[in-house]
């Protein structure tokens, strides 16, 4: 019962904490999804396993670049608009990933998705 009173007294802080946990859950899911679906994506773009294998390092390259870019955001700037923007962009690119029908489009989408996820983290 005390927990509910604490939540009621600090609604905004509770919601911020909840959405931060949700954001990291989505980042984890976004990282985990392409691995098991690699063969399905290979069939969708009609390429070899070696060619579709470039998808994972491309996403990792985007993620590493995004982590570096995210570190350049100044400490004194409000980070909430950045988080909301890049979370939305990451969701859009994650949702568009299975709809790509070319290997180049698929890899480009994975790079941008990794970039936005890296900036968020």
- Secondary structure: helix percent: over 70%
Number of domains: 1
Order of helices and strands: HHHHHHH
Number of strands: 0
Mean pLDDT: 88
Give the biggest sheet: none
Unreliable spans: none
GO molecular function: transmembrane transporter activity
Main location: membrane
Domain Major facilitator superfamily (MFS) profile: 16-121
Membrane topology: Multi-pass membrane protein
Walk me through the topology.
Blueprint: H1 2-9, H2 11-32, H3 38-45, H4 49-52, H5 55-71, H6 80-96, H7 103-120
Helix pairs in contact: 5-7, 6-7
GO cellular component, one term: membrane
Transmembrane segments: 12-32, 103-120
Subcellular location: Membrane
Q: Could you walk me through the main structural features you see in this protein, from its secondary elements to its overall organization?
A:
This is Sodium-dependent glucose transporter 1A-like protein. It is a multi-pass membrane protein. InterPro entries: MFS_dom, MFS_trans_sf. The chain is mainly alpha-helical. It has one domain. The chain is 78% helix and 0% strand. The protein has seven helices and no strands. The chain has helices at 2-9, 11-32, 38-45, 49-52, 55-71, 80-96, 103-120. α6 (80-96) runs antiparallel to α7.
Keywords:
single chain; elongated; 121 residues; mainly alpha
